[in-house]
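Input record, target 12 of the design panel.
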């Protein structure tokens, strides 16, 4: 998957492979990571594919059975244990393991050129639910007013008068993208293509073009000057690629219909207590209760 595609010409399907599906919850997988010598157990496989949205990175470094691993030991010697988390290590690991394909790089080139020319991007990612590619995807009822509230927020910043600012919009709702784009018609940038729930698409329809759109959006969300998100692991991890992940970072709180400024959980003198949560976006955002 180095260039985001599987090369069937060079793949040897006789190699042993382990596939783990752990979306939302998988007690056996979590136990393997937390309490077993899983590195030794998995060493017999040539390829290991893990599909998960669980944050078990901290558990790996706390697993007493793998403390003698050289890579684990290297991190423990140089980084405080409480900072060895998914959101801290993700950008480092991501840039090492992946490089964008030529299609992705070509799509990003004019956007990156605009940034070099002095334009700043305000990025919006709204995860509304009921993704069209997944009939089982729930709708987030508390986000029904998100578009109106975010447009009001942008209007208070006089965005229309900022000629060097562009608005990038990504969402699992075409209506959301259309509504925001109509408010800023001369400033909006979107990535064309079918909307795909990348974790659980119902079938293979639009898989190639949908995945390409998702990857481009993921890279783009790491190039923003200002970011406004709803709670979503996708945009939360994409945001970690920013040079300053917490600079001008805002999260929409649908329950209270307000936009909160996010802050670094390590900005205070005392590091936070370790909190185990199933949805890692809560840890990554860790937004304050300060209303803007």
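The sequence produced for target 12 reads:
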């Amino acid at each position: 998957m180095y260039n985001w595609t599987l090369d069937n010409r060079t793949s040897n399907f006789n190699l042993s492979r382990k596939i783990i599906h752990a979306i939302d919850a998988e007690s056996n997988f979590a136990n393997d990571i937390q309490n077993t010598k899983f590195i030794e157990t998995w060493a017999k496989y040539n390829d290991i594919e893990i599909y998960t949205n669980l944050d078990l990175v901290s558990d790996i470094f706390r697993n007493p059975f793998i403390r003698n691993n050289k890579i684990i030991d290297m991190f423990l010697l140089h980084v405080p244990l409480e900072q060895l988390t998914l959101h801290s290590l993700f950008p480092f690991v991501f840039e090492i393991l992946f490089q964008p394909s030529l299609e992705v790089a070509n799509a990003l080139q004019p956007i990156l050129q605009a940034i070099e020319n002095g334009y700043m991007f305000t990025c919006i990612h709204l995860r509304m639910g009921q993704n069209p590619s997944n009939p089982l995807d729930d709708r987030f009822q508390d986000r029904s007013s998100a578009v109106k509230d975010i447009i009001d927020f942008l209007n208070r910043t006089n965005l229309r008068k900022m000629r060097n600012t562009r608005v990038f919009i990504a969402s699992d709702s075409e209506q959301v993208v259309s509504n925001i784009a109509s408010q800023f018609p001369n400033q909006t940038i979107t990535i064309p293509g079918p909307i795909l729930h990348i974790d659980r698409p119902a079938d293979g329809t639009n898989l190639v073009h949908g995945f390409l759109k998702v990857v481009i959006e993921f890279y783009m969300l790491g190039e923003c000057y200002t970011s406004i998100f709803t709670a979503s692991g996708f945009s939360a991890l994409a945001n970690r690629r920013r040079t300053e992940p917490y600079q001008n970072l805002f999260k929409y709180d649908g329950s209270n219909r307000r936009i909160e400024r996010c802050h670094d959980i390590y900005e205070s003198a005392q590091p936070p207590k370790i909190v185990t949560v199933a949805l890692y976006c809560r840890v990554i955002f860790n937004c304050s209760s300060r209303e803007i």
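Confidence is low (pLDDT under 50) at residues 271-292.
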